[in-house]
Amino acid sequence: MFSAAVRAEQACRGSRDIHARRAAAGRFAHALSADGQPYVQHRGGPPGFLKVLNTCTVAFAEYAGNKQYISIGNLAENERSFLFLMDYAEARRLKLWGRARVTGNPTLLARLADSSYSARVEQAIVFTVLAWDWNCSQHIPRLVPAERAR
Known about the structure:
This protein is α+β, with helices and mostly antiparallel strands. The chain has two domains: 1-30, no CATH class; 31-149, Pnp Oxidase, Chain A (Roll), CATH 2.30.110. It is 25% helix and 30% strand. The chain has five helices and five strands. The chain has helices at residues 4-13, 16-24, 70-77, 106-112, 146-149; strands at 51-54, 57-63, 80-87, 92-103, 121-134. The chain has a five-stranded antiparallel sheet. The protein is globular.
């Protein structure tokens, strides 16, 4: 996760030791996709779409979309994943490192479905958390409700 230049900057600015200890403890993944390149895809749904299944597992419905299937294609090659969860209203963000898999389990799909949301659920993504960290919230923009933004 930290290149030589990043490690040098951390050392210069006094944060290298803590990050080295976290890395030594296995807190950071080493690759994000089959060829080592990171892949980022927005995921969302109605409020509460991310469901906690147990103390180390979360899941969410994968809704029908543009049919590119980039996320599930990447997961077929490499299960290493990362979730970056934003709470703009409260100015918080949570980073989760883990492993993800795609499933069509009908019982889980029913648990993840939201009857008030009209999108069609195609499958689910189940994410096993290996590490997590509350990220610095200092520069998170505050949410402005749509009715006030006009």
